[in-house]
Amino acid sequence: xxxxxxxxxxxxxxxxxxxxxxxxxxxxxxxxxxxxxxxxxxxxxxxxxxxxxxxxxxxxxxxxxxxxxxxxxxxxxxxxxxxxxxxxxxxxxxxxxxxxxxxxxxxxxxxxxxxxxxxxxxxxxxxxxxxxxxxxxxxxxxxxxxxxxxxxxxxxxxxxxxxxxxxxxxxxxxxxxxxxxxxxxxxxxxxxxxxxxxxxxxxxxxxxxxxxxxxxxxxxxxxxxxxxxxxxxxxxxxxxxxxxxxxxxxxxxxxxxxxxxxxxxxxxxxxxxxxxxxxxxxxxxxxxxxxxxxxxxxxxxxxxxxxxxxxxxxxxxxxxxxxxxxxxxxxxxxxxxxxxxxxxxxxxxxxxxxxxxxxxxxxxxxxxxxxxxxxxxxxxxxxxxxxxxxxxxxxxxxxxxxxxxxxxxxxxxxxxxxxxxxxxx
Length: 425
Hints:
Low-confidence stretches: 1-38, 43-55, 109-118, 413-425
Number of strands: 16
Strand order of the largest sheet: 5-6-7-8-9-11-12-13
Shape: globular
């Protein structure tokens, strides 16, 4: 016996259904371990779902947010692989040097010297604003009330959407998308959150595979079949053909084409510490009826679509977290493994309605802001009990130095931005 639940605005895409509005997940009852894995638990104890078709005689009991948190474990470990400090240092040095080379190879402005250099990844900004808002849920569970996440709190938010490619290309091409957004407190506190589209499955399992993906990206700058063949050969040599195919598949399925940013779902690629728990995050669209691009299309189709949708009304996303349960269902070391744990909504990122009269100004501001902004998850809110959303694991450990060096290379390391453009925004 099964129950079919449609999760509005929350999509799990492969290349074959990239334009789908909703994903349908089949939940079996009463004793299926995966029955809560895909749904988002609302703050009033209900799944954020659409129509629920319940067979006659079956009673569906949905857990409250507090009940879900009770299944999370505080006994998590950061569990860095036993590489040794020298091996990890070598990986970091390799990642820094390879990212610098990639930036110079792929993103130097035509007809100029090596300066200025664009971002290593997420090279093209598709939409940006300094005037979004983040609203914390009024009835946030006690366990999640950490740092800026105080019930009912509201913050100004600075946001940048981008295409994941290391080269500036048309929005009409298939690509993974990214978002970086910052919560700005009244006392100068900030919290950056960086996410990418696709699913909870990362392309790289660990730091070594992450570095291998940077090496492969250098081949892609050649373009065409030659570039793709070189990238695949590079991956196969470094991590083996089987894992190379896994990475290529995951990277391909993370891409979308013709999908509005307002209908996309963005995920963290590694765990973070929130209070006593290790969590992963996602940003899921709220109330999007038409996932396709609106407007005339073209190289800036995503920008045009976002501007036009804000003219019609506010654009909203729900920030959600899922917690560590055990190593089997929520691995702290295998970042390619998608966590099997329900989602709980923490708050909403809101882009207020922007009247048509300000369309030209909106486009201009978006372009200017996008060029200047940079984000890093190491810009953290200082909480009473230490750092909030502290990055965990070796993938995040690798990113720290790479972010810093990439920011220096692209000239965005100043106090105004306090961040790095590598990978996430």
